[in-house]
Automatic annotation (TrEMBL):
<dbReference type="Pfam" id="PF05746">
    <property type="entry name" value="DALR_1"/>
</dbReference>
<dbReference type="InterPro" id="IPR014729">
    <property type="entry name" value="Rossmann-like_a/b/a_fold"/>
</dbReference>
<keyword id="KW-0648">Protein biosynthesis</keyword>
<keyword id="KW-0547">Nucleotide-binding</keyword>
<feature type="domain" description="DALR anticodon binding">
    <location>
        <begin position="472"/>
        <end position="588"/>
    </location>
</feature>
<dbReference type="Pfam" id="PF03485">
    <property type="entry name" value="Arg_tRNA_synt_N"/>
</dbReference>
<dbReference type="InterPro" id="IPR035684">
    <property type="entry name" value="ArgRS_core"/>
</dbReference>
<dbReference type="GO" id="GO:0004814">
    <property type="term" value="F:arginine-tRNA ligase activity"/>
</dbReference>
<dbReference type="InterPro" id="IPR001278">
    <property type="entry name" value="Arg-tRNA-ligase"/>
</dbReference>
<dbReference type="InterPro" id="IPR005148">
    <property type="entry name" value="Arg-tRNA-synth_N"/>
</dbReference>
<dbReference type="Pfam" id="PF00750">
    <property type="entry name" value="tRNA-synt_1d"/>
</dbReference>
<keyword id="KW-0067">ATP-binding</keyword>
<dbReference type="InterPro" id="IPR009080">
    <property type="entry name" value="tRNAsynth_Ia_anticodon-bd"/>
</dbReference>
<keyword id="KW-0436">Ligase</keyword>
<dbReference type="InterPro" id="IPR008909">
    <property type="entry name" value="DALR_anticod-bd"/>
</dbReference>
<keyword id="KW-0030">Aminoacyl-tRNA synthetase</keyword>
<feature type="domain" description="Arginyl tRNA synthetase N-terminal">
    <location>
        <begin position="9"/>
        <end position="89"/>
    </location>
</feature>
Length: 588
């Protein structure tokens, strides 16, 4: 029986099924399709199968060809080299498959996962009373894109913004505020920048007193105890720091054009109540042991200098809990209460040892089971255009807001240059400038594989040429303008038409959208989607150069079919960019 072809199957998937159908049912073989210069696809999988069955690969390939039903999908197939298959797809199959996708609204024919899991994504986790830095930017941008892609595959995602809202530094801050009550305005500020500058001032001032005044230091220490024991006045003041910081966080996230939900801001402090139990359980199970008064977990394979084992500290000798205890308690919550099947931490690669130890401890305790994966998506450092760690000329850390403002400013200048020709209003220029500028920052981050360091180079980011979001946004707007200009012709697929080479190449790339999103999502690799989109825009450019759509106007059906390709390209660009958190203005 011919394999039933589900609507959502791509051409490549139909081809895979057709090849598999020629093999005995028991063989589970991936034909390993690759796009190829000689034909549309080359299948390399026969070689591995022949090796396994101790058969001659060329003979096996010849058998496959003899049994392969050509017709609907396959136009031509031949054996080449030691046992590859070169396959040419029929034009009809390309257009028909794309037409089915085009008829499927925003999903573009991309199926939903059969068995979606629940992924808890820990991302965008700045620290209270502190300025956000470029590292926090990466976490937010990458986490948001991961989430967009996973959601699109049907996975259920839950965000967790594990903000740094606990620790001994609050003793100092709160004590200072008690002694200088007017320093933080009673009303919570609504202006993010104002909020941060207030917090900065308090932070600096309290630090200065803390360092200079022994008596204050002692009072600050006592304040930590009061905070930990839940003293009301102390907690109220702590809350003010948190609230004021959130005003600031939200202003940055809004600038980033990113939606962050309040119920998903669940910081370190949220796990306070569970930490004593975490410690007790670990000790009872023998996962953690007492060492010099502290409760720690040791790992054979993790050793520091002089070969001494590096422990994970669950509870300090003074009874206090820290970062690790909060993360371990969070795991219990995420697995047992949220029923997560995957835990993803988008956190600086410099914390990878911490996560390695936390995950291992949680596995030993049985909180992480074989059914649950845990992954630290550790990202690299943000460097300046000079390749050195990102600093201002004066050697200070760059303020995130200044950075984003500058990106928007530069982008607005780029947009303005072309605005007159496109007929954009001042309002549209401002709006587009924002989308282009923020998109540039996000795309530069997402298009490099996350574990690599990347250069924050605004000149390059807003450049119209090369692998930038601006290039993609212009490609999108250009297609939209083509579609508007095509009076008297609508995008209509015509499967009966023969396709030009550039149409085939574009069509087969469009065909790969679904598999690309699935691959990028399951590998936590947004850069694969970014690379796909960039190639899509480039292929569109060659198509448009070689296949006139409007001028000179081709025959009606050809024009309609080409407009159909334009339309599907635009929608794919739009959807793909949206998954990455980047807007595509209609006119640019
Ligand atoms: N707030 C931390 C920082 O700024 C990142 C938190 C990461 N998440 C976690 N579950 N530990 O470095």
């Amino acid at each position: 029986m011919a394999p039933v072809k589900p609507l959502s199957a791509s051409v490549a998937q139909q081809l895979t099924s057709a090849i598999s159908a020629t093999l005995p049912e028991t063989t589970d073989v991936d034909p390993l399709l690759r796009r190829s210069d000689r034909a549309d696809y080359q299948a390399n999988g026969i070689l591995a199968l022949a090796k396994k069955n101790k058969a001659n690969p060329r003979d096996l390939a010849t058998d496959v060809v003899a049994n392969l039903t050509t017709g609907d999908v396959i136009k031509d197939v031949e054996v080449s080299g030691p046992g590859f298959l070169n396959i040419t797809i029929s034009d009809r199959a390309i257009t028909e498959t794309l037409a089915a996708r085009a008829a499927d609204g925003d999903r573009l024919g991309v199926p939903l996962k059969d068995q979606p899991g629940i992924s808890v994504i820990d991302y965008a986790q700045p620290n209270v009373a502190k300025e956000m830095h470029v590292g926090h930017l990466r976490s937010a941008v990458i986490g948001d894109a991961l989430r967009g892609m996973l959601d699109f595959t049907g996975e259920q995602t839950i965000g967790r913004h594990h903000i740094g809202d606990w620790g001994t530094q609050f003793g100092m801050l709160i004590q200072y505020l008690i002694e200088n009550p007017d320093e933080l305005s009673a009303e919570t500020d609504t202006d993010g920048e104002q909020a941060m500058s207030n917090l900065n001032r308090v932070y600096k001032a309290s630090r200065a007193v803390f360092d200079a005044d022994e008596a204050f230091k002692e009072r600050a220490r006592k304040r930590v105890v009061a905070l930990q024991s839940g003293d009301k006045e102390t907690l109220d003041l702590w809350q003010r720091f948190v609230d004021e910081s959130k005003v600031y966080f939200y202003s940055v996230f809004e600038k980033l054009d990113m939606e962050i939900r309040d119920d998903e801001i669940v910081g370190e402090s949220a796990y306070n109540d569970g930490m004593p139990e975490t410690a007790r359980l670990l000790e009872e199970m023998g996962v953690a042991v007492r060492s010099e008064g502290a409760l720690v977990v040791f790992f054979d394979e993790i050793r520091g200098k002089d070969d001494k084992p590096v422990p994970l500290i669950v509870q300090k000798a003074d009874g206090g809990f820290g970062y690790a205890a909060s993360d371990l308690t969070a795991i219990r919550n995420r697995v047992q209460d949220l029923h997560a099947t995957s835990l993803i931490y988008v956190v600086d690669v410099r914390q990878s040892l911490h996560f390695k130890m936390v995950f291992e401890a949680a596995r030993r305790a049985g909180w992480l089971t074989d059914e649950v994966t845990a992954h630290n998506m550790g990202y690299g450092t943000v460097l300046g255009a000079d390749g050195k760690p990102f600093k201002t000329r004066e050697g200070e850390t760059v303020r995130l807001e200044d950075l984003l403002d500058e990106a928007v400013e530069r982008a607005t200048a780029v947009v303005r240059e072309k605005a007159e020709k496109v007929g954009l209003s001042e309002e549209e220029i401002v709006e587009n400038g924002r989308y282009v500028g923020i998109g540039a920052v996000k795309y530069a981050d997402l298009s490099t594989s996350a574990n690599r360091d990347y250069k924050f180079d605004l000149d390059q980011m807003v450049s119209l040429n090369g692998d930038t979001s601006v290039y993609l946004q212009y490609a999108y707007a250009r297609i939209k303008s083509i579609l508007r200009k095509a009076e008297g012709a609508d995008p209509v697929a015509h499967p009966e038409l023969e396709l030009a080479p550039a149409e085939r190449t574009l069509g087969l790339h469009l065909d790969a959208f679904g598999t690309t999103v699935f691959e990028a999502a399951s590998e936590y690799a947004p850069h694969k989607l970014a690379a796909y989109l960039y190639q899509l825009a480039s292929l569109f450019t060659s198509f448009y150069d070689q296949c006139p759509v409007i001028k000179p106007r081709p025959a009606q059906e050809i024009a309609e079919n080409r407009l159909f390709l334009c339309d599907l390209t635009a929608r794919t660009l739009h959807q793909g960019m949206a998954l990455l958190g980047i807007r595509t203005p209609e006119r640019l």
